[in-house]
Write a structure and sequence with these properties.
Radius of gyration: 18 Å
Strand content: 5-15%
Helix content: 25-40%
Number of strands: 11
Structural class: alpha/beta
Number of domains: 1
Shape: globular
CATH superfamily: Glycoside hydrolase/deacetylase
């Protein structure tokens, strides 16, 4: 990790939250000017993978929903989001931070019992995972224990920090710590594709599937960039559909304002999410391959596990 980034994570705990957000907004305005040709759409990311056979059942594109639950407040809002998704006929994965707040077993059971997936989102969200390989390997052992206890097969790193080689220390079927294009992230190196891809171990061990988010994060759009509608989501989705790729969302329950309540600082109306799901359902009903990340990883491994 670059020295300046390490320094930021060292002082972040003592910075007031409003200062952190203000810093990110200034940085984002610069990034908007310098990356307008590759965000939110990078045309070079549309190339299909080698030996591409198309999505199962002849579907036009893949559509996946994922959530990172960063705080106890976010955990309290999970049921609201999950019930909204069930109402509209969707399922999703919820990734929890096991050592930042007490993750409720009854909530995990509710989710898995209703067709959702539970994954692990780091350990404590402190930004120190990649200070050294030794630190990461030590934490990977703890993460693997939580994954075994929860029956999880998927991982997403806090703040989307990633090292795809080091992730082989995790006992995972898939990782979801990358993106096709997102210059606003602390580690902004996109993978440059709107398709999943296989990450071989290189030493004869088991590989895993990398599943990147391809629709802009809710936090980026509505908290950092302060957008007041879902036009960017719709524009990016329509482009992905036209290319036959994978549309994967990353939503944070922490920042959704419950229905009937005016949004507080760092929140946006949950109706934005409802409106987008209704848009997908209305415009593309019957055209999307909608599965859980673990199901997509299983399909991808079976068909493209050597590419």
């Amino acid at each position: 990790m670059p020295v300046l980034k390490k320094a930021y994570y060292r002082i972040k705990p003592i910075l007031p939250r409003r200062v952190q957000i203000a810093m990110r907004r200034v940085r984002a305005r610069i990034k908007l000017r310098t990356h307008g040709d590759t965000w939110p759409i990078d045309e070079n990311a549309a190339a299909p993978p080698k030996n591409w056979k198309g999505w199962p059942e002849g579907k036009r594109f893949a559509f996946l929903l994922t959530h990172d639950v960063e705080t106890a407040k976010g955990q309290d809002r999970v049921r609201c989001l999950a019930d909204l998704e069930r109402e509209l006929g969707f399922t999703s994965s919820y990734n929890f931070v096991p050592e930042r707040y007490p993750v409720r077993k009854e909530l995990r059971n509710y989710l898995t019992g209703h067709g959702f997936e539970v994954g692990v989102h780091g350990l404590n969200h402190d930004g120190k995972y990649f200070d050294s390989f030794e630190i990461f390997r030590e934490r990977a052992q703890k993460i693997n224990r939580y994954m075994s206890e929860w029956g999880s097969v998927g991982f997403r790193s806090p703040s989307m920090q990633h090292n795809l080689t080091w992730f082989h220390e995790l006992e995972i079927d898939y990782d979801a710590s990358t993106f096709d294009t997102d210059p606003f992230e602390p580690q902004p190196d996109g993978v440059g594709t709107i398709y999943p891809f296989w990450v071989p171990s290189g030493n004869g061990g088991e590989g895993y599937v990398e599943i990147s988010y391809t629709l802009p994060q809710d936090f980026t759009l509505f908290v950092i960039l302060q957008e007041k509608n879902i036009d960017t989501w719709k524009r990016k989705l329509d482009w992905i559909v036209s290319k036959g790729g994978m549309a994967l969302m990353l939503i944070h329950p922490d920042y959704t304002s419950p229905g009937g309540s005016p949004p507080e600082a760092e929140e946006y109306p949950i109706n934005y999410y409802r409106e987008f799901l209704e848009y997908v359902k209305c415009k593309y009903e019957g055209e999307y391959y909608h599965v859980l990340p673990r199901e997509l990883a299983s399909m991808w491994k079976a068909n493209y596990g050597t590419f």
